[in-house]
Amino acid sequence: MSDWSRAVSNHPAEDLATPVNTITGNRGLQIEEKLIFEQDSPGHCGVDLVDPRPFRTRLGGLERQGAIGLPGLSEPQVVRHFTRLSQKNYAIDSGLYPLGSCTMKHNPRLNEKLARLPGFADIHPLQPVSTVAGALALIDTLAHWLKTLTGMPAIALSPGAGAHGELCGIMSIRAALEGRGERRSRVLVPESAHGTNPATAAACGYAVDPVPANPQGRVDLGALKDRLRTDVAALMLTNPNTCGLFENEILEIAAAVHAAGAFFYCDGANFNAIVGRVRPADLGIDCMHLNLHKTFSTPHGGGGPGSGPVALAASLAPFAPLPWLVHGAGGLELVEHKSGPAEHAIGRLKGFHGQMGMFVRALAYMMSHGADGLRQVAEDAVLNANYLRVRLGADLSLAFPDRCMHEVLFDDRFLKDAGISTLDFAKALIDEGYHPMTIYFPLVVHGALLIEPTETESKASLAQFAAVLKALAAAVRSGDAARFRAAPRLAPRRRLDETAAARKPVLRWRPEPSRVLAAQ
Ligand SMILES: Cc1ncc(COP(=O)(O)O)c(C=O)c1O
User: Fold this and answer.
1) Ligand 1 centre and the CA of 190: distance in Å?
2) Which residues are CB-neighbours of 143 under 8 A, at least 6 positions away?
3) Range 472-475 contact pairs with CB under 8 angstroms and sequence separation of 24 or more
4) β-strand 263-268 against 232-238: which pairing, if any?
5) Is the distance from the beta carbon of residue 298 to the nearest atom of ligand 1 less than 6 Å?
6) Helix pair 422-431, 459-477: axis angle to 10 deg
7) Cα–Cα distance, 32 to 152 (Å, whole number)
8) What's this model's pTM, rounded to 2 decimal places?
9) CB 183 within 8 A of CB 177
10) Phi and psi (nearest 5°) for 237?
11) Chain segment 56-110, per-residue pLDDT in tens
């Protein structure tokens, strides 16, 4: 056993029973931080601005009457505030982030450098087209790569996230069906799907019909065929699916969907497992969103920014949202209105062209990897997940024994009778310095633990992670339930009331009544 793993397994549990109280409330160099409004020292300001020269207002009486209510802080206070907040955040730049279905992989710094080039970062979306030829060429090149990798003839780049891409895809499908004079009412969604899939179908006015999984964690083909009637607009399938498995009957699934006159939508959020190896068009897919922020490594999390381009088959291309970038006689041209070739477009889904910064990063990622490098990405993502599957298969309980794709799924059978829940087990990882894996998703597995190591983790990093999980599983077997139920014991905050946080979130700071009176 290495010094490192000994340190992990010989946790001084007795010390933790006594809470450490400090004078400041800080722990070690973890500094408690008040809200910026609570740090208000009225009159303080980080900048000295001269009073503006008198000017004529054109607000017609709509001028603000009172103070805006921003807190007064000096520059060092602001810097410390945001630095301390950033130190509370766990990020892929801090360590392994095995959150299944999220593809938290390293974002190469080269991409950042290129995204900051003034020709991309400083342009304005309303600049005349003739002054942004380089940016348009970049968008066109990105579209070319995405079309090549998916095998699809058209790509809509503007959607701002995976879920937004789903909306784009299902709206295009609805428009295509309406173009055929058909009003279909149901969308089939496998039980293992990401929650955004049924939400999208429902938001577009469809009834969501769940398709059960078979015992191998894949779509039950018989159950799917039973549901495929003439009122089905589309099947929304994720491939590889959220159990981390390739849908190996996908060609039959596509044939059945098409035979029913429906469209085959694929949630391509997990494309990093197959990029460069399989072209979705060859699988019979009509429409698929890609999460640039996952597969092509642009920073994400914490609400964005994301980018969810949608690849479209020829039958759906006429309905792609505006704007379109087309090759005209004079070079690249923007089609911004529903007329001419874009007569059937579903309209605009987003202001301007989409997430330009993400486009630059994604293309930088693709071009620096090259076609062979992208294929290697998929191979390494699958290899890393399978490394963990094999290392941990005897300690945690594998939901499906088969070889997996980019993520490996465990269920809670290994916790049975130990009085420890999946949540307890995941929280214990925080004490060990790891962000937990995704838990309780997908729903088709009891007490799911979904681990996605991603392709950018080294073997050493995965070996360490596996050693920690093995040690924790050994603690489960030894009956050390207290350790898990109390976790996290070492984080700046202990366990939160997650139900109250979700149901009764406090989203707005209000000043103490005494402060309001004092200010009046
Ligand atoms: C399988 C799957 N589908 C859809 C989404 C939604 O993507 P986004 O969070 O960009 O809206 C995700 C997000 O990670 C996902 O994993």
Assistant:
1) 15
2) 155, 157, 325
3) 472/425, 472/428, 472/429, 472/432, 473/392, 473/395, 473/396, 473/414, 474/9, 474/395, 475/428
4) parallel
5) no
6) 130
7) 51
8) 0.90
9) yes
10) -120, 140
11) 989 999 988 888 888 999 999 999 999 999 888 898 999 999 999 999 999 999 9
